[in-house]
Amino acid sequence: MLGKLAKSMKDGALGIALKAYVNDRLGDYGDILDCSVDTTNGRIAARVLLKGDKEPINAAVEKYELEREGDAVYATLRKFSSSRPWLTLLLGKMFTDKRYKLPSAVRNLL
């Protein structure tokens, strides 16, 4: 039971850190309203309000993989989904199999 609680707290902290990081980097395009991370299944889900839109959309990294190299941790994005088919296609074409070095704020929570 404590293991599940600790995992839930870690995933919650990762979601908060990721939301802040992405909003800082991509705030010109919109805002992440909610972000959740499921480290067990390698999934990230977000509710996003894009600039100019009245209703938020749902978007998810359905599968990601983490790899450690020394002190660095990299995430490779594998599969995407969203509540908008065009966005799912765009995310898939632009980001599938891309590898990103995680910022220290996120890395330290892993």
TrEMBL record:
The protein in question is named: Uncharacterized protein
Which superkingdom, per the lineage?
Answer: Bacteria
